[in-house]
Amino acid sequence: MASDALAKILENNAQVTLRVVGPLKVTGPLQNFSSQIERFPLLDFLNLQNLISQVEGNLIPLQDNEFTNCKSELKYFEAGIVGTISIATPTYSYAGAIVDGKNGLLANSFEWYEKVRLFLDLIKSGDAKEMAENAVRHSEERYTWYNQTKLIEQTLFRESECTNAPVRDMVQMPKSLTERNDPGGVEDEKGQNQSEIPEADSLNNDNSVNELKVREKTIDSLKSELAEIHGSRAWKSISFYRETRARLLPPGSFREMPFKFINGILFHPQDTLKKTITRVNRIPKERKIVRTQNELIHKNYLKDSERLIVFLVPGVDIVNGGTMSICSLAKVSISLKPVHNSEVLIGTLPGNTLFTKYTYFENPFDIYRFDQLYTYFSKIKALTIHLPEAFVSQFLFYLNRKQRKFLTSIPELTINILNQNVWLMPAQEVVDQLKQLTERVTCTTAHSRYCTREMREYYGIPYHNFSASNLTNYYYSAYEKKENIIIISHDVHDAKEKILAKIQSEHPEISIKRIQHIAYEEYKRLISRAKWAITFGEGLDGYFVESIRSGAIPFAVYNKDFFTNRFRNLPNVYQSYEEMFKNISDDMSRLNEPVLYKSLSDRLMGLDKQEYNDDTYKDNVSRYYLGQYDLP
User: 450 with 303, same domain?
Assistant: First the structure.
């Protein structure tokens, strides 16, 4: 069994992390390794691809039966195209796509432990790089849309009718905002004041928006082909079926449930029964949560409230930078009630798991259900919804007809995209779908770096910079009170293990602490003791800033999408991970001296105060509610 093998792998390899995406329930021996398991909610395709690109391995354990042998090799080439190696059960499609040991690994039910262990050995030795490159090359040659012309012709027409047109020349697709670019080749830019919004001529070195525009032109070139497909009788028949089904059986409705159950029993009975049993077992817990939420909303809000501000969150009780940022914005929004005259609450996204409280960090908020907006409040005239960028697609997907009708009936509906990470912004087409619900769609950013006129023009919505703060006090400790501890962000990166191995080898006196699954208060006390920190994430993120405020020196790689120019030439900020690997050990030795350490620490704290100021942050939020956008 794959789960037993994974449990053994996690037990023997404390540095290995298992990522689980979606509602999959972790059972059996894996339950004992919750500290090594990261949970993510259901994601749209772009954000799922971004997540896959961050890991080394992609596991595809399947039962070997008629149903699974009819499944395509989709999960292989989704991972392969971003350089992630797949380990799969050798069903018909996966055995045809993966050459064991060349572009991936195949594992029978009794081989999972050996194959995963082999994979870890390949990662450690560096031999996995060639396998990943083979997977990328194979995925491009066999599965990209621009290499399908001849295959489609041969499938649809007799061989004699084919044009025998050569496979379309490979198109150089632009890099997306979700790709982590190596900043090493970026030219220097002139510094700018934090309060200034960059104009177009100051962003010549930032290609993100231009690359998105190139992608749009590529898509536009295919519109004539798509128009022909959409005009076909087959397409119209499929569209009629889908529209009729949506009217008779609205997605997410009780009427749809029996249909889905019968359909599931006919085509995949084992999975359907398993999911049904899981769902039935959750009913008592969910009923208790619903009762609690109903009691809380009656206690805390008037039924005839006319103005609401709602922050939507995924249905997961976790602590991370995004969650704490949303709670911070909610706190500030409550304090600004004289400005907007609205009630403020936090609720789960439609279709998400229910819960009532964030328990991993101190906060005053109860968590409500999305449907309480229209089942409890009866006189809403103005509603502002703050929606995290990573969940825009999910929000649109799970909205049923009743919820859409409720939203479109509100006279003053504003939907604001909380852009906390520019890599996770949805596609322009997705943002356009929000505009079908309301003309008032806006975007607020956590970094001035991507609150730009180019982004505003690309998405066609007002942009405004909130900046970032979690309004938290940290436990500052000076060099003399620090311990030989280095904290490591939870982020996944190819260079991570190599860099940590070098530090451990050359500085055995340093204790390496990986941050994962700990309460926020415990984390704050740990970084107050730590002398060093490394973030393998965006760079200018919580790990970087919180370490500064706790008196530690953080190391990061410069990233033009997040860092402003004032951070570029710091001795603890590198231009690439190769430079970090080469120099970080020597830099730690050099800086491990009271005068140099204090000098850099003071400089970092000064930059932090220039970049982030709680009063400015509150004023930015206030100006948003007044409609005074940076880029209207």
Answer: yes
Q: What is the CATH number of the domain that holds 324?
A: 3.40.50
Q: Both tokens of residue 255?
A: 């009427």
- What's the whole-model pTM score? 0.60
Amino acid at 206: D
Q: What is the count of structural domains for the chain?
A: 3
SS3 194: coil
68 token code pair: 């699974």
CA atoms within 13 A on the CB side of 342: 25
pLDDT of residue 624: 97
Instruction: Give me the CATH number covering residue 111.
Output: 3.40.50.2000
DSSP 8-state code for residue 538? S
Q: Would 42 be classed as within a structural domain? A: yes
φ, ψ (nearest 5 deg) of residue 251 = -55, 130
Q: How many helices (H) and strands (E) does the chain have?
A: 25, 17
Examine the domain organization and report whether 95 and 43 are in the same domain.
yes
Tell me the H-state helices in 54-187: 74-80, 92-97, 112-125, 128-143, 149-156
Claim to verify: residue 538 and residue 448 sit in the same structural domain: no
At 618, list the tokens. Answer: 């509150």
SS (H, E, C) 327-376: HHHHHHHHHCHHHHCCEEEEEECCCCCCCCCCCCCCCCCCEECCCHHHHC
- Quote the tokens at residue 110: 């009794």
Q: How far apart are CA 29 and CA 26, in angstroms?
A: 9
Quote the domain boundaries for residue 523: 479-611
Is residue 455 domain-shared with residue 494, that is, in the same domain? no
Tens digits of per-residue pLDDT, 506-552?
Answer: 999 999 999 877 888 899 999 999 999 999 988 888 899 999 999 99
State the CB neighbour count (10 A cutoff) for residue 16: 17
The closest of 558, 476, 554 to 188, measured between CA atoms, is 558
Q: How far apart are CA 538 and CA 424, in angstroms?
A: 12
Q: How does pLDDT run across 485-502, given as a tens digit for each residue?
A: 999 998 888 889 999 999
Same domain as 573, residue 444: no
In the chain, what is the greatest distance between 2 CA atoms, to the nearest angstrom? 82
Alpha-carbon distance 607 to 170, whole Å? 45
CA separation for the pair 383, 276 (Å, rounded): 36
What gap in Å lies between CA 289 and CA 311, rounded to an integer?
A: 19
Which spans in 144-207 are helix H? Answer: 149-156
Evaluate whether residue 238 is within a structural domain. Answer: no
